[in-house]
Amino acid sequence: MGYAFGSSVLAITALFCLWTAGISGMKPRAFAARLGLAIANPGGENEVRAQYAGFFLAVGSVCAAALLGLVPRQSALIVLAVVFGGLIAGRLVSLVLNGGVSGYGPAIRALYAIDAAGFAVTLAALIVDKST
């Protein structure tokens, strides 16, 4: 059961990351707009492609490599814990500094749930995977 759970976490996260890399890389302006960001020039497109497409391609590739047995599963799960943990930590700081989510668009509100769930599920996968 533990192995299947960890594999599911890696597979779902790989798909999410590769999907995010694809849409942010192909249409950086539309992707940024959904997040409430405006791109002023080609440098902004470059930054979305680097910070979102490149980053999520790398994370998704690590997950896929772990599923294929090319890198240790625990290493991939640690990468996910660091990524989701850092994202939710930053979001929680913003929540406090901004006094709530007033003014946040639906995509940003959804990312709170995605990042919190990603962190919790990844920690659970690390624990279960280690015990099997």
Q: Describe it for me?
A:
With 132 residues, the chain is mainly alpha-helical. The protein has one domain. The mean pLDDT is 95.
Topology of helices and strands:
Elements: H1 2-26, H2 28-34, H3 42-67, H4 73-97, H5 106-131
Helix pairs in contact: 1-2, 1-3, 1-4, 1-5, 2-3, 3-4, 4-5
Q: What integer is the average pLDDT?
A: 95
Structural class: mainly alpha
Work out the helicity level: over 70%
C-alpha Rg (nearest Å): 16 Å
Number of helices: 5
Short description:
The protein has 132 residues and is mostly helical. Helices cover 83% and strands 0% of the residues.
Key terms:
132 residues; globular; mainly alpha
